Amino acid sequence: RYKTMVTPRRAAVAIACCWIVSFLVGLTPMFGWNNLNKMRRTQEPNGSHTPFVIKCQFETVISMEYMVYFNFFVWVLPPLLLMLLIYLEVFNLIRKQLNKKVSSSASDPQKYYGKELKIAKSLALVLFLFALSWLPLHVLNCITLFCPSCQTPHILTSIAIFLTHGNSAMNPIVYAFRIKKFRTAFLQIWNQYLCCKSAKNGAAAAQAGE
């Protein structure tokens, strides 16, 4: 059923929807959910006629209500918990199928479900790395919002931000090491666009030398 349901067109539509939703969620502060009005209200009582200057820092510009209530509680935590439940169910189903096939001493189905289990473990590792990379920053945002008097060390914030950026580099590495099809595709890209170019340059240099 998978090949009939997940057609290239449906996959492209799903990917496009993910990107559109991501753009809308990420650009929400530019639509007005930010700290601009709050900073203007704090400057008006002072009666200062100096130009309105905004300190360009993330927590100064971006609203923590947006980061916690909208970004974390709506777009990060529920999908993360849903994916966790889905993977638990997938592992449970594969384990049941493996136990059935082992008891019936059927080698081919056991090999198939063993392969499916390996892929599921790889995707679960991606999910775990995502949670490990993004939850620290969201926890710090929750502390900033719900405990304004609490002071979080600057080094922790820097590490949390570094983890969120590093997560984007983790996935291709995990895919390449854990899933054979991804590894084969990466090697083909490497050989086609990098090694071939260097080989062509070497051949051209050899012909020029002749």
TrEMBL record:
It is a multi-pass membrane protein. The chain crosses the membrane at residues 12-33, 72-94, 123-146. It holds the Pfam family 7tm_1. It is found in: Cell membrane. GO terms for molecular function: G protein-coupled adenosine receptor activity. Keywords: Cell membrane, Disulfide bond, G-protein coupled receptor, Glycoprotein, Lipoprotein, Membrane, Palmitate, Receptor, Transducer, Transmembrane, Transmembrane helix. Residues 1-175 form the G-protein coupled receptors family 1 profile domain. Receptor for adenosine. The activity of this receptor is mediated by G proteins which inhibit adenylyl cyclase. This is Adenosine receptor A1. It comes from Tricholaema leucomelas. The lineage of its organism: Eukaryota, Metazoa, Chordata, Craniata, Vertebrata.
